Amino acid sequence: HFGNAPINDGTVRGFANITEDVSIFKDIWLSETAKFRFEANVGNLFNRVVFCEPNGNWSSGGFGQVYAQCNIARSVQFGMRVDW
Fold first, then answer.
1. β partners of residue 41
2. Could you report the per-residue pLDDT of 47-65, keeping only the tens digit for each?
3. Who has the most CB within 10 Å: 22, 44, 49, 64?
4. Is 61 left (phi over 0), alpha (psi -120 to 50) or beta?
């Protein structure tokens, strides 16, 4: 037992989690009651990497090292929709 510090300390920060998600659409009215919509959704627009927390096992040879990425790479999705 190394001390009495809490497992999760709010004063100690890990890596920043900064991602930008964007959704745009264009409505095209076909008549007074019908419309066509084109959509584009982009997740993690600038493809930023968010690393996982460092290895916290004191007895490990890799203590304090980061081995993984915790977010998903950029994703793009297109869609079309007709409402009437």
1. 23, 77
2. 999 888 888 888 888 888 8
3. 44
4. alpha
